[in-house]
Amino acid sequence: MDTTTRPDVLLLHGLGATGAVWDGFTQLLDRPAHAPDLPGHGGAPRLPRYSFGGMAAAVADRLPGAGPVLVVGHSLGGVLALTLATGWFGIEVAGVVAVGVKVEWSDDELAKAAAMAARPPRVFETREDAERGYLKVSGLLGLTGADPAGLAESADGWRLALDPAAFAVGRPDMRGLLAAARCPVLLAAGEHDPMSGIGQLRELSANAVELPGLGHNAHVEDPASLLPLLDRVAAGPSGAAT
């Protein structure tokens, strides 16, 4: 395929992280990529209320064009990728790779997320403490360093740039989103992902892919592992759910 005709890639990070988590992946790509901070994360504006539709709309508004784009999303970003794939936000999505999406939520997990959303931002005495807090919240501790855009200094110390209210985004309607998607979709999860089991994903799509040896942040642990998925979903419906 002529590389000049291939769509750009839009990369959407997970809850608590920033677009910088995709740096290792973008270095492997041979086409333009966009990795924005999601609303309420890093340097992106906050929203008065967080929903999958509201966050997807904010992402769409900040894109340089209307597509087409291949969207690769991790966890929350995977849900937003599917939301954009509905076509309701003015972006032409050519395909979606959703990695590590949590599809099963207990009432206790939802209650815990709501409680986190209601808490005021935690203030850390030192930047080092804030960096560790950022890495823990984003699930990146031990995998990479903290993105400076994920931190904010204030008069009384350091805090995370993350808006805690984003934790209230809720439980995704994965079946509904998959049914509404207007493009090929490929679900994937690391073999050792505690949040997104391959069995759960295959109940939604028989073509879901397990990434051997990897955990929840497969795109950080082994960025190259996602390249075949991008090629597969770009090839069309034969390699993905529609």
UniProtKB/TrEMBL annotation:
Q: Name one Pfam family in it.
A: Abhydrolase_6
**Annotated source species:** Amycolatopsis samaneae
Name the domain of life: Bacteria
Q: Is Hydrolase one of the keywords?
A: yes
Which is one GO molecular function term here?
hydrolase activity
**What keywords are assigned to this protein?**
Hydrolase
Q: Does the keyword Hydrolase apply?
A: yes
- Where's the AB hydrolase-1 domain? 9-224
Q: What is this protein called?
A: Alpha/beta fold hydrolase
Q: Which residues form the signal peptide?
A: none
